[in-house]
Structure formats: C-alpha cells, structure tokens
Amino acid sequence: MNRITGLFNVRYPIVQAGMIWCSGWELASAVSNAGGLGLIGSGSMYPDVLRDHIRKCKAGTDKPFGVNMPLIYPQMDEIVNIVIEEGVKIVFTSAGNPMKWTGLFHEHGIKVAHVIANVKFARKCEEAGVDAVVAEGFEAGGHNGMEETTTMTLIPMVREAITLPLIAAGGIATGRGMMAAMALGADGVQIGSRFVASAESSGHERFKQSVIRAADGDTALILKKVIPVRLIKNEFYHRVKELENRGASREELMELLGRGRAKLGMFEGDLGEGELEIGQISGLISEIKPAAEIVEEIIAEYDETRKELYERTF
Amino acid sequence: MNRITGLFNVRYPIVQAGMIWCSGWELASAVSNAGGLGLIGSGSMYPDVLRDHIRKCKAGTDKPFGVNMPLIYPQMDEIVNIVIEEGVKIVFTSAGNPMKWTGLFHEHGIKVAHVIANVKFARKCEEAGVDAVVAEGFEAGGHNGMEETTTMTLIPMVREAITLPLIAAGGIATGRGMMAAMALGADGVQIGSRFVASAESSGHERFKQSVIRAADGDTALILKKVIPVRLIKNEFYHRVKELENRGASREELMELLGRGRAKLGMFEGDLGEGELEIGQISGLISEIKPAAEIVEEIIAEYDETRKELYERTF
Question: Is B216–A157 a contact, with Cβ atoms under 8 angstroms apart?
Fold first, then answer.
C-alpha cells in the first residue's frame, strides 16, 4: 500500500484521467476493474447523462471509481448534487478554486483530489484540505496551465512545497514514464492519452486512429489568450495559429473557436475542423488496446524498470 | 561502466552543458575533476579566447573534458581548427547539421555528441555517425527546438527511434531528476542550470542570484519567430512578449533583440535589460555551490533514489 492506493483503496496508483468525450462509464469501470482508478469525465456531460454514467459504472464494477469535474462547469450545483446523491466516493476537481466544494464533499465522505499546474495552486490545495493533488505538466493534452511548466520540473517543485499525496500527470503512458514520475517524487500517476487509445474509450474511432498516428511535434498548446489547450495540429489548429501569429484578440479567437469543436473532433471524428485534445506522449502510443491490457503492461514495465535501474551501474 | 562513461572515459554519466558566458575552463575542469564531463562553451568566445580556455582546462585537469560548439557560429572553420590543433578529444555540437563536421572530427580521433530536440534530427545524427545524442526538452534554458517537446516525452520517443548512446537534457538538476531520465531510457544526463549556479560558473554574481531566486513560472520560451530561447521573465522579456502578442514581425523582434543581450545579462549582470538564459528547473535550485559538491550531491541522491524505488511497493 502507498499513499495513493491507500487513499483510494485501489491496487495500483494509476488514475485514468477524466477526459471529455472519451471517458464514460465503459472506460472508467474497465480501468477500475483492472486495479487502477477509473474516472468518469463529467465535463462533456449534461447532468442527466452523468447520472446515467455513474449508475452504469456502479453496475459495471464493484471497485472504487471517481468523477472528474471542471469547476468552471455551468451547472456545478446540479453536478455536485448528483455525485452526492449517487453515492460517488471520489471526485477529481480542476479549473477552479478547491476551497469552494471540498468541505461539502468531505461532509459526505467523498475524497477529493484537485488538479493544478503550478506551486501556488498546490499550496492552495493544501489550505483547502483536499486529499491529494494532481500536478499536471505542459505536455498534457487538453486544458493546461499558463506557465508551461513541464512534468519533469513541476513534480519535484510541488513535492518540495507540499506534503499531500501527489499524482503526476502529463507525458506518462508507460511503466518507464510511471517510474520517472515516482523518481521525481510522485506517489502515483494520472494517464490520459494512453487511455484515449483504448478499446473502451468513447472517442470516435477516427480520433483514436489519429492519436496512434501522431508523432513527436504533432501536438501544440494554443489559444493561450482564451484558455490554453493542447491538441493535434490539424486544419483547425493552423487557422488558430495564423490568427495568433497576427496578434488576434481574445474575441477573434473565441469567434473562430465557436461551440462544439471538441465534440466535433473527438466524438464525431471530424479530424479537420474538430478540436483533437491529446498529449505530447501520443507520439509514443502506437496501438489501441483494452484498458485492462494497458494497465497490466504499465505495471509489468514498471516492475522490470525497477529491477533494471537497481542493477544498473555506471 | 555504461555507454556514456565508457564512451567518454569518465566516472559518472553527468555532462555539464557547454553554456555561453557561464562555462569557461574553471567550470569545465572542476566538473571533470569531480568525475563528470566538463564542457567549455565556445558559443560566447572569440577563437583566441577559446584557445586560451582549452589550454587552461588542460592545465586544470588530467581528466577528459570537451568543447561545445553551436554549428551556426560565424567562425566555425577557425573554431574547428583550434579544437583539432589543441588536441581536444570530445566535442558537443548543436544548432546545425551533424553531417558537416563529424567525419573530420573522427579523422582526428575526436568523439562527437550532437544536440537535438526532435526524433527527426535524432535519426539524422545516427546517419551522420555521431557517437552520442543529447536530446534536449522544452524546459531547458537557452536556445531550444520549435516543437516544444518536453524531456518526459522526448527521451522515450528518441530512445525508441535510435540505438545510439543517449544523453537527456532539460529539467534535470538533481539525483532524482537523473533517475527519472535513466528510467525514461537515457544513458546519461546533461545538466546546465544547476551548474550556472556554481562557484566556478563565470556568470555574473547577480545572474547567479537571480537563478537561485527563480521559482516555477519565472522562465518562458520566447522569440520563436527569431530563434526560440528560454530565459527569465525580466523587463526585456516583457517587452519582447508585448511585441509578440501584437503579432510583431521577425524584423521588429530582431531590432529589439539587438546585439549583446546575452552578454549584458549573464556576464555583465544587467538583470533588467539582459537576456538571462536559464531552464525551468531553476525553480528547484536554491544555493550556489562548488561544482564538485553539486556532482557529489547528485550522485548521492541518485543512489538513495535507486534503493528507495527498488524497495517501494504499492
């Protein structure tokens, strides 16, 4: 047992990131059944859809699972009520102030992890009394911090600043990546991109194929004047980039962005005009596999690496 | 012995990055004497200054040391001749095509490592027949790649693509960071920022103090339309950033950049108007120490971490 497996009562300190359009109950329950911690990504769900996913997840696994919620969600009160009513025991919050909801969750016996991208917010998490911190580096897919601090540098700086259980996120897809995160001071890892390319991911098949095709340099962090997001460089990206290079305003960018770009890309499979959120580590992912196989592979490679590093001399 | 210590005939697979204005013969010989591989950074030296540093370095250590050279240097022929004439046995090249000089260096029994920031150039290194590759992530200080690939994701992708001895750079300052790099598949590490903050670094004392004061988020990669460089966010940075946000052209940026900004900042200690090149990991560096102590600390922490990770269970 370590600080993460003990906290969430799971076998492995591997959290499957709660990702919009990709992580419904099928993926979350598959990861939890495999000994990790599966998360339902509520960010792309209407409240009633979330309730349905929670119920199906409960039916699909008798292991712990959680719900991820961006705190900027417009119907937060409703989402929070559903999570409490349905007896969810773990929530991962992001994109907001952990002070606001942590107390209420704790009153209902719900464990809270909060996602941050800098040391200042890691300290705020400690003040807010959350149970664990997810520190997410610049290489991560989807929404990201403004400071561009990478996993390699963020994890040891957060580790130095706070004592809470620490989950590393961003750039991790393998047992070697997990070992690197643990060496830097993490107690566990959160993995997104690798689970996008899983059989149980609800992302569109064309999106999954674009993830396994991606090589190094195929993603970029853009839209920093709106909200930074890492995605695959497709036609949509190039149009945003052109505007940005011309010094376009937030308003112009918002207009091009429009609504529903993420759904269009990741759920409906429009690889040209959709927003295809994925991390840099997609360059290392080459096959779509069942989530259970992914978890097993990561743990097996972690264990090999542990022995290899111990025996290795200069 | 491993593939890096064997190649360079050093005790530890720790390379001190050849940095402009900071790594003269004092630093390089101190690191080599401590069992690492010290590099003289020729990028900020006139040819006759370089010759002087090489001679002093030979007098200062009987251990292997090398010279780092950006291949865009205007007087490359002269620099190459000096390195050959002075009997230097190791060169690290960067910012150019490794095809051009590797053959000549090899004719003179000189080992060549080349610095890259993406998989494509790692493959070119292999074709060029260099002896080792330095893969440098987005978090590194100074000049950097366009793709923004971080150390956490670049190292495993390069490891998968080529079989050459691999040195990880960017975001590494401690034994834990070194262990993370080794877990990701590196055979050794190149460390810059930590050695900037060494007693033997020829950087200005005010620059060194600004490095140990830096926290997470205090550096940024800018000037992507000219040549990407990571530096401390000072007044100069903010003026560049303002121009960039307005969509300024390469020419406008070149004009603001002017000449001698790096010397002004790092060597003359102008913290406002100078270019203060340093990596993100500066946020973890809090003390100026002798180079030998830095090497010893890194190795001691690496060894502790090795045991800790081996014994750690979930």
Answer: yes
Dihedral of CA B8/B10/B11/B14: which sign?
negative
* A274 within 8 A of A240, measured Cβ to Cβ: no
Residues in chain B, overall count: 314
Q: Are B267 and B202 in contact (CB under 8 A)?
A: yes
Contact A117, A151 (CB under 8 A): no
Q: How confident is the model at residue B47 (pLDDT cuts 50, 70, 90)?
A: very high
Helix (H) or strand (E) holding A138: none
Pull the structure tokens for residue A9.
């009562």
> Closest by alpha carbon to A172, among A191, A196, A188?
A191
Q: Which residue has the tokens 């390319």?
A: A197
| ipTM of the complex in this document | 0.97
pLDDT band at A83 (very low <50, low <70, confident <90, very high): very high
For residue B113, give the 3-state DSSP assignment. strand
Between A12, A156, A280, which is nearest B149 by CB? A280
> How many beta-carbon contacts under 8 Å exist across A and B?
179
Q: Do B150 and A150 touch (CB under 8 A)?
A: yes
Distance between CA B170 and CA B134 in Å, rounded?
Answer: 10
A295-314 pLDDT, tens digit per residue, is: 999 999 999 999 999 998 88
Alpha-carbon distance of B175 to B171, in angstroms, equals 12
Using the beta-carbon criterion (under 8 Å), do B283 and A153 form an inter-chain contact? yes
Q: Tokens 């406002």: give the residue.
A: B272
Task: Using alpha carbons, select from B193, B219, B204 the residue that is nearest to residue B285.
Answer: B193
Residue among B8, B149, B153, B231 with most chain A CBs within 10 A, to mutate: B153
**Cross-chain residue pair A13–B215, CB shorter than 8 Å:** no
Nearest chain B alpha carbon to A306: B310
> Which chain A residue's Cα is nearest to B181?
A180
- Between β-strands B229-232 and B219-222, what pairing exists: parallel, antiparallel or unpaired? antiparallel
**Residue B202 to chain A, least CA–CA distance (Å):** 25
* Partner residue facing B152 (CB), from A5, A180, A182: A180
pLDDT digits (tens, 9 = 90+) for B219-249: 999 999 999 999 999 999 999 999 999 999 9
User: What whole-number distance in Å separates Cα of residue A215 and Cα of residue A130?
Assistant: 36
Contacts of B310 in chain A (CB under 8 A): 306-307, 309-310
DSSP code string of B11-79: SSSEEEP--TTT-SHHHHHHHHHTTSBEEEEGGG--HHHHHHHHHHHHHH-SS-EEEEEETT-TTHHHH
Residues of A in Cβ contact (< 8 Å) with B3: none
Q: Can you read off the two tokens belonging to residue A5?
A: 């497996």
User: Cβ contacts (< 8 Å) between B307 and chain A: which residues?
Assistant: 310
Query: In which order are the strands placed within the sheet that holds A90-94?
Result: A14-16, A188-191, A166-169, A132-136, A111-116, A90-94, A65-70, A38-41
Angstrom distance (rounded) from CA A186 to CA A166: 5
Distance CA B272, CA B231 (A): 12
Write down the pTM of the prediction.
0.98
A302: nearest CA partner in chain B:
B183
Which of B233, B239, B226 minimizes the C-alpha distance to B276? B233
Residues of chain A in contact with residue B5, where contact means CB-CB under 8 angstroms, are: 314
Give tens-digit pLDDT for B161-217: 999 999 999 999 999 999 999 999 999 999 999 999 999 999 999 999 999 999 999
Q: Which domains does chain A have, with CATH numbers?
A: 3-202+282-311 (3.20.20.70), 205-280 (no CATH)
